[in-house]
Amino acid sequence: MKRFLLPAGIVALLCALPAKGQQPSEQDSVRMYELQQIEVTATRATRQTPVAYTNLSREEIARKNFGQDIPWLLQTMPSVVATSEAGTGIGGTSMRVRGTDATRINVTMNGVPMNDAETHSVYWYDTPDLASTVGSLQFQRGAGTSTNGTGAFGGSVNMTTESLPTVFNGSASLSYGSYNTNRQAVQISSGLLGRHWALDARVSHIGSDGYVDRASTDLKSYMFQAGYYSGRTMVKVLSFGGKAEVYLAYTGLTKDQMAENRRYNPEGEIYGYLHDAAGNPILDEWGSPKRGVIGFYDDHKDNYLQINNHLIISHRFNDRWSLNVTGHYTYGDGYYQNYKNDQKLKKYNLPPIDVAGTEVSKTNLIRRKSMNNDFGGIVASANYTTGHLSLSMGASWNMYDGEHWGRVLGMEKVPDFPQTEYYRNATTKNDANVFAKINWEVARGLTIFGDMQYRHIHHKITGVNDNYDDTTGALQLLDIHRSYDFFNPKAGVSYAFADRHNVYASFAIAQKEPTRNNFTDTKAGDYPTSERLNDWEFGYTYRAPRFTANVNFYYMDYKDQLILTGEVSDTGEALARNIPDSYRRGIEIAASWQATRWFTLGANATFSQNRIKNYEEHVTLYDNADNWEWKGESVNRLGTTTIAYSPSIIAGVVFDFHISGFDAVLHTQYVSKQYLTNAEIEEMTLDRYCVTHLNLGYTLRTKTIKSVRFGLQINNLFNTKYCNNGYGYSSAFEDGSRINESFYFPQAPLNVLANVTVRF
């Protein structure tokens, strides 16, 4: 909590500043704005760039922001499917784009990679209330333009922090709704002080009990930035982050469990012998004491602290040349603790224990898995712009240093059990890249695009891992040293004609290294390889004052794509395997029509085909369903199959009303059936769903304060029972039989969230 005293004190200090001071000139404000825009130039697409993208402004983000994570705010965008473990969009959220999972979606803030260097995922609750920090967002689909960090195999989310305001202002916001969901936030900005300085700070808290039982979330966050402006130079210091305490909810429910109780959370279950109300043992059908769930473990939680720091220097040499350099450092520290039933002691590097003269090799226990990491580096870009030419050159170097370890904290049958460490391993990763890209209007309306990137990665993992290896009878030993060198060229052309029309085409190569989990959750020696994407995009855009439309065709051809198998690790991480040949192809359609000054209709749809060629299904083989002794693998050659988690149709429609301070946005999304594994087993699917959300708002402006906004968010307006995520796996037996198991994450029924925000 002490880490939050500094930002809280900064807010208090800013509150003490006089509301009226030296007013910045219009020239100061324009120059300050232009300097801050240099930060985003190098990695963003423009109208002349032949890629599919969507921009979100600060105002659009603010209208949607009731405290949910970024994936929840992007649901209206083409080809996006958002998921939530707790069922409310707060806590364990993620998203998929064109069917690709979050590890293939590149995310940056001010050009700094946000994807975890090891897993390539973004754990959104580790940066709570991030939407309140974002000033603008560009969402690119496909390989997109060159960026920093892990490769974009489905899309990229390019965010910048909010620009420092030139005038004194502030806000206070309160939200409350279903499942005790609540948010409190205070923000204040100094405006331009002495024509050179500006300060901005925010603190907030988000809490929720979650729709799923015990899937509680307690998030504390802050943001502070200070800037200095002098002529053509800006220096800005930024720090943002927070502390998260989240009750685990990464285990899904079977269909039978959902039929009985959709809110049930299997996490934290404590198994023991059952007794009736009188205290008498309950017997099973064979007359033996019956075991079952006798309670839940309260501290079955993920606790994590993450602090992100940026030092940004921007300089405009003249009207054509500009430079941006950003140094960054992120600190992360945390653990998750859980109760595990009927655990084999050998999996924790522990010998059998003696209980009243009986040797016991299996018992209930409490474990804690911890991690600590440092991530830092520098990103830089130089930009040259004239009326017909835009050139960007950039480079980055990032280093990650992390450590993982685990301890057994307690054991059911040994009350005085000493805490014992059972694994520890370390990771270092160096990631460097250089790129250059050009947009050149060679003739009226005709622009060519070129983009070249070279990226080098060295990844090292050593130590003892937490996975028990049945083949060796010991915990997994890690000694992984991998280097990768990727050349990722991109080229395209766009042609604008008759003022309103634009056609474009592009080809891009993207390459990506495996994640930590790809290495650790596989057999020793059977390590994954890097993957490669050849991405073709063809599109047409029509722009008129009241109507815009875009049609985009894509063909994404993969070599050795790491595709989700539908299985998950012991910690809920999705598992993947290299597939030699696979592809995704489809058409994306988006349109927006401003019918009147107060009504806009928007719609988008993606129709796609996502296939694996010559798929081989690998299923774990056991002796029988009674003994479950591991025997190896069963391999089934299935030919061409559909890629898991890849709906053939994603469609949405948005009705946007705004008149006299009142606004209403009605959003409906349809997602077709998704297979949970790559074997196309009908009983292992996510059913199609159609869900509608409604946002209402009214803004009141007065003479004494800038505005008061009242908002009401009604999620799942028509009370649809649906699941937007799940997982599944199969087990085979020596007699030729198999068991297919599927697990799902139910989403909340109709729920509401009210908000009031005062701006001054």
Topology, element by element:
Elements: H1 5-15, H2 26-41, E1 52-56, H3 58-64, H4 70-73, E2 80-84, E3 93-97, E4 105-109, E5 112-113, E6 134-141, E7 155-161, E8 169-177, E9 181-189, E10 197-208, E11 217-230, E12 233-247, H5 255-260, E13 269-273, E14 291-296, E15 301-316, E16 321-344, E17 353-355, E18 358-360, E19 362-385, E20 389-411, E21 420-443, E22 446-469, E23 474-497, E24 501-512, H6 516-520, E25 531-543, E26 547-568, E27 574-596, E28 599-622, E29 630-642, E30 649-659, E31 662-671, E32 674-675, E33 685-686, E34 689-700, E35 707-715, E36 723-733, E37 738-746, E38 751-759
Parallel strand pairs: 4-7, 28-36
Antiparallel strand pairs: 1-6, 2-3, 4-5, 6-7, 8-9, 8-38, 9-10, 10-11, 11-12, 12-15, 13-14, 15-16, 16-19, 17-18, 19-20, 20-21, 21-22, 22-23, 23-24, 24-25, 25-26, 26-27, 27-28, 28-29, 28-30, 30-31, 31-34, 32-33, 34-35, 35-38, 36-37
3D structure, described in words:
It is a single chain. The two termini are 28 Å apart. This protein has one domain (2-759): TonB-dependent receptor, beta-barrel domain (Maltoporin, Chain A, Beta Barrel), CATH 2.40.170.20. The chain has a 22-stranded antiparallel barrel. Helices cover 6% and strands 60% of the residues. A hairpin with a 4-residue loop joins β15 (301-316) and β16 (321-344). The protein is mainly beta and 760 residues long. The protein contains 6 helices and 38 strands.
Give the tags.
760 residues; mainly beta; Maltoporin, Chain A; 22-stranded antiparallel barrel; 5-stranded mixed β-sheet; 6 helices
User: Helix fraction?
Assistant: under 10%
Radius of gyration (Å): 27 Å
Number of helices: 6
Largest sheet: 22 strands, antiparallel, barrel
Oligomeric state of the chains present here? single chain
Q: Structural class, from secondary structure content? A: mainly beta
Mean pLDDT: 91
What ranges have pLDDT less than 50 throughout 5 or more consecutive residues? 1-22
What characteristic shape results from the CA principal axes? globular
CATH-scheme architecture: Beta Barrel
Distance between the termini: 28 Å
Q: By CATH's scheme, which homologous superfamily applies?
A: TonB-dependent receptor, beta-barrel domain
Number of beta-strand segments: 38
Number of domains: 1
Q: In CATH's first tier, which class applies?
A: Mainly Beta
CATH topology label:
Maltoporin, Chain A
Proportion of residues in extended strands: over 45%
